[in-house]
Specification:
The protein is of the alpha+beta class. The protein has one domain. The chain contains two helices and four strands. A hairpin with a 2-residue loop joins strand 2 and strand 3. The longest helix has 21 residues. The chain is globular and about 30 Å long. The relative contact order is 0.21. Keywords: Signal.
């Protein structure tokens, strides 16, 4: 239940971030791979899991054979990197 609520919250936040990026607003997150959580969700990546990491959360996304892990630094800032 908590995982479902978290996934829905992440999706809601990333949807708003995609709108902000498209409209020239603030960017959603820093990125180590040139990707942000909002861009990944907009590109069709699915959230597969979200796990707590201390006071932060790590969200795992996958599309076909590629996967990313995004760590929330703050509520509106994340770092994403490709999992190889």
């Amino acid at each position: 239940m908590r995982m479902t609520v978290l996934a829905m919250a992440v999706l809601a936040l990333s949807t708003g971030a995609v709108y902000a990026q498209a409209s020239g607003g603030a960017s959603f997150g820093d990125s180590t791979s040139g990707q942000t959580l909002g861009k990944l969700v907009a590109d069709g990546y699915e959230i597969k899991a979200a796990v707590p990491n201390g006071a932060k959360y790590v969200v795992f996304l996958q599309k076909e054979n590629k996967a990313y892990a995004c760590e929330f630094v703050t509520l509106s800032s994340s770092r994403c990197g490709e999992i190889r």
